[in-house]
Amino acid sequence: MRDRTRLKLTLRGKRLGLTLAEVKDLVDMYESPRDTRAQLKKFLAVLSSHRAQLEQQMADLKATLDEVRAHEKESRRLLDDDERRRAA
Cβ distance 29 to 9 under 8 Å? Predict the structure, then answer.
């Protein structure tokens, strides 16, 4: 049963995109008999940090997508202009 819990925690960490070190901390946290309040606070800090990274990545991706869209739009406009010149 203990191995099953470790596997579940590892998979959860991977799904959340945590590093191996963060996953190890998560597994260690659940295996230790320490105060669960402190463990949960630590877990929340890890999640908060990871969420901030993901939000920054999302903002970066959005900016890149906006730039790609702008280049696509300009390329289409140039092609349309070229086609109109050739047809004239």
Answer: no
